[in-house]
Design goal:
Length: about 725
């Protein structure tokens, strides 16, 4: 008989902040509840379980009985609850005080709700940097689980990884378990006997071994085709049966019991790392494509097992480089975090409001919208919108806590996006706008405080390494040969024809010069030639301030073709107002006509719904927000989202041609490849003929009306008052 081996099952259940209720419910129906139903029947099996904070709060609202069942299992000593950062941030992404605060806050919540003693935690996406040790120890944590990939990157071998290790930072200690990558691929996809055989091989070589399986609970039912396999076909029951049948030498344990009964296998310092796939996905697209090509060529080489242990990709933080939109969210999050910290240290604000703001900040740190791999991540607008919703909510609460006199207007010149160059902030009690002089003078964030929405939470269309699979899939559908690595699932037909890329961020106040006969189709595809050098050019900037208004003035002496042209745009925000006024002045123009266009993008206003639509001067509907528009002689255009309760109005001081079209990306998710609506592009354009002095001017007014949302809130408040006051 093999030596006794301790086997710990560490299951991680998570749904992100902002995910749809239906997704939560389906995961509950397909994974969380049926897994618990099977587990409860096996009294001799124990489990370490992590339920992320967003999911735990949803369960407490919608299925409190599920949490009651967990509490009962905790009381029976069959279930260990793993803690973690409350709203599942990448811990290396958030400031140290927020790491500690999130972990402590969630430990407190779990103690109150489940009666659990929280000693260990789950590391979101297993993104690790050694400096986390001291913060996690300060937060009261004793141990965690990472992948064996982390330990191999530190120079250890598979044979070394049959226990847990001590690691240290700044004199603080943390125990770290290596989770088996091999078991991540056998469970639940291979027959249970393969896992038993793997454990037997280890137990025959090692005494007092501890082996950990640590992975997502969603793979037990929610991942494609796993529900039938795991439950209908009985994989999970057969797996627990196999563990029970071998209980003489397999001791199914919790991480806490392993810590209490087995000494550490040694000490280790781990490099910056995550699980293997994450280190691959973060690579720049060209390097990732090359990496995948080389890996596919070598993985059948007999030398590959020896070589692969030294192969790893990049650092998670580079998602903020790969996707500048992730960096925008990150920088906005840091601004809110810093303000929470400053007001907390001042000791002169309402403590309850400050705590509410802190929790909203924590929700805005949820990791899923900040990166992209096999899951939708940053490509999912509802996740990006949720991040901004909570960050703006936190900012609003901080304004209330600081008791700033209203109405107000302010401007600031600072490096808001951490690129060593200064940006401009214009803010009042209704709107908050960020402009980047160094990036074409673009407006890159526009927060609407009343509905906690960033109208510029956009995403540009860019190449992805997996787009070659989209093209290969189209070839396969046409009967052409594709390799095994190119097999894909299309969630919509014709995606290969929708692979279009942008040469610039999809933001607003983007200044184009096009050929006079350019078409809407060419502009929408992103392949209309730029005749000017303004779109990514550097603008000079200054700010003018009056008691009731702030003005950012951005100007650039650039060129259109071989002709020097100057653009000046002045952006005005008034105290208490919900309008941005943008005055354009073009100077040094040639006498021959030029085709000038100003691009604006609006995010979070989805296509394909009748209550989200365009309308014109006489309030005539022009189609839902996915409609392509090619208007002539327009003086205004409105975009309405009745669900959000917002009406975005554009007014032009000159009659304008207006193009409008949806910006859509082709991205991958766990269910396959799909087309995702990212923003609505609205492009007023003019054939410019200068006056006698070579000048031409136009004013664009952006008017944001949230009265519909305010009316709903007021109506809901009256209804609540009526219920409370009813006898």
């Amino acid at each position: 008989m093999p030596h006794t081996i301790r086997f710990a099952l560490a299951i991680h259940n998570h749904q992100p902040v902002g995910n749809f209720d239906g997704v939560f419910q389906q995961a509950y129906d397909d994974s969380y509840r049926p897994f618990l139903d099977v587990f409860e029947r096996y009294a001799g099996i124990k489990l370490s379980l992590h339920v992320s904070g967003p999911l735990a709060e949803w369960l407490d609202r919608h299925h409190p009985d599920y949490l009651d069942r967990l509490a009962d299992l905790v009381h029976q000593d069959r279930l260990e609850i793993l803690g973690g950062a409350f709203y599942e941030p990448i811990l290396t992404m958030v400031p140290p005080q927020d790491r500690v605060g999130q972990v402590r806050a969630y430990s407190d919540w779990l103690r109150r709700r489940l009666g659990a003693e929280i000693r260990g935690l789950w590391i979101p996406e297993r993104v690790w940097e050694q400096s986390l040790v001291s913060d996690l120890a300060t937060a009261g944590m004793q141990y965690t689980v990472l992948d064996d990939f982390h330990f191999k990157a530190a120079g250890l071998t598979t044979d070394d990884l049959t226990g847990y290790f001590i690691t240290e930072d700044n004199g603080q200690l943390l125990s770290v378990f290596p989770g088996s990558e091999r078991l991540r691929y056998t469970m639940p996809f291979a027959d249970p006997d393969q896992t038993i055989d793997c454990l037997r091989q280890i137990a025959e070589r090692r005494q007092s071994a501890v082996i950990v399986f640590g992975d997502d609970g969603e793979k037990f039912g929610t991942w494609p085709e796993t529900k039938k396999h795991v439950y209908d076909d009985g994989w999970l029951a057969r797996f627990f049966d196999a563990l029970s049948a071998n209980r003489e030498w397999i001791q199914v344990t919790t991480l806490a019991e392993a810590i209490d009964n087995v000494p550490p296998a040694g000490k280790v310092y781990l490099p910056d790392c995550s699980y293997r796939e994450m280190t691959e996905w973060v690579l720049p697209v060209e390097r990732l494509s090359e990496y995948e090509r080389v890996r596919h060529e070598l993985e059948h080489d007999p030398r590959w097992p020896a070589i692969s242990q030294f192969v790893r990709g990049g650092n998670w933080r580079n998602y903020k480089v790969k996707y500048p939109e992730a960096n925008e969210m990150y920088c906005r999050m840091l601004q809110v975090s810093q303000r929470v910290q400053e007001l907390s240290q001042s000791g002169q604000v309402d403590a309850e409001l400050l705590e509410q703001a802190r929790m909203e900040l924590y929700r805005g740190q949820c990791n899923c919208a900040y990166w992209h791999g096999a899951f939708g991540g940053i490509y999912l607008p509802h996740l990006r919108n949720a991040v901004y919703q909570h960050l703006i909510a936190a900012d609003n609460l901080l304004e209330e806590a600081a008791v700033r006199q209203s109405p107000f207007v302010e401007d600031r010149f600072a490096d808001f996006n951490l690129d060593a160059r200064k940006e401009i902030l214009l803010a009042n009690d209704k709107l908050l706008a960020f402009l980047s002089p160094r990036e074409g003078g673009e407006l890159y964030e526009l927060d609407v405080r009343a509905i906690r929405h960033n109208l510029l939470a956009t995403l540009a269309r860019r190449p992805e390494a997996y787009h070659r699979k989209v093209l290969a899939g189209a070839q396969q559908a046409r009967g052409e040969v594709a390799s095994i690595h190119e097999r894909i699932v299309f969630k919509q037909p014709g995606l290969d024809e929708r692979l279009q890329y942008d040469a610039y961020p999809r933001k607003s106040l983007l200044d184009h010069f096009y050929d006079n006969d350019v078409t809407l189709a060419a502009v929408a595809r992103g392949d209309a030639p730029e005749r000017g050098d303004f779109i990514r050019g550097v603008y000079e900037a200054r700010v003018r301030r009056a008691p009731d208004r702030a003005q950012a003035v951005l100007s650039r002496a650039g060129s259109v073709g071989e002709r020097a042209v100057r653009i000046t745009k002045a952006v005005v925000l008034e105290a208490g107002g919900s309008k941005l006024q943008v005055a354009y002045a073009l100077e040094d123009l040639p006498q021959e006509p030029l085709h000038f266009a100003v691009e604006l993008n609006f995010a979070g206003l989805p296509a394909g719904a009748d209550d989200r639509y365009f309308y014109d001067t006489v309030r005539g509907r022009l189609g839902q927000l996915g409609t392509w528009l090619d208007l002539a002689n327009a003086v205004d255009l409105n975009l309405v989202d009745q669900w959000l309760g917002i009406d975005v109005g554009l007014k032009f001081s000159r009659q304008s041609g207006v193009w409008a079209f949806p910006v859509e990306t082709v991205s991958q998710s766990e269910g396959g490849f799909e087309l995702v609506h990212q923003s609505v592009a609205v492009v007023p354009h003019w054939i410019v003929t200068p006056d006698a002095t070579g000048q031409w001017r136009v004013t664009i007014q952006l008017d944001i009306d949230t009265s519909q949302a305010a009316a709903r809130v007021e109506q809901a408040g009256r209804a609540q008052t009526a219920v409370v006051s009813a006898p």
